[in-house]
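Batch manifest, entry 17 of 40.
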Amino acid sequence: MENNKRPKRRIKIGYILALIIVIAFGAVVLKLVLPSSGTSKYGDRLEGIENYKFSEKAQKKVIDLIKGKEQVSSCKIEVHGKRIDVIFNVKKDVSKDDAKNIANESLGAFTEKVKGYYDIQYMISKKKEEGIKVTVEEGKEETKYEFPIMGYSNKKNSGIVWTNN
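Output type: structure tokens
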């Protein structure tokens, strides 16, 4: 009878050891895969950003410059890590080139220090744009819109590159 208990005990010990190994392995995998609660979603990419603050006063300067144009109906700035999003709407009668000129002019309101650290992205839209009817195929028409337009100024560039001309 004693011989029957030994194999059962060994099997139980084997199961317990296997369970401990699986739990330990799972904990190691979770530690590697999931970030710890103290890290930023940007990791260490924002190291030193405190030396390049884009203050609210500086943001207001850019917004006031853009809103000061009579063609602009609204403007806001959002900062996401090392990227600054300048988002504004133009009025109905504003051309795409005029909107781009407003953005190009506003780039001068940023300090060289900010332009050298951040990437600046422009998103320009127009409310109530009517669009232009274009014939795509025989009997089929499509409405083409000029807006929204997007531009991007990399920290290594001095101007804005427009994505959809």
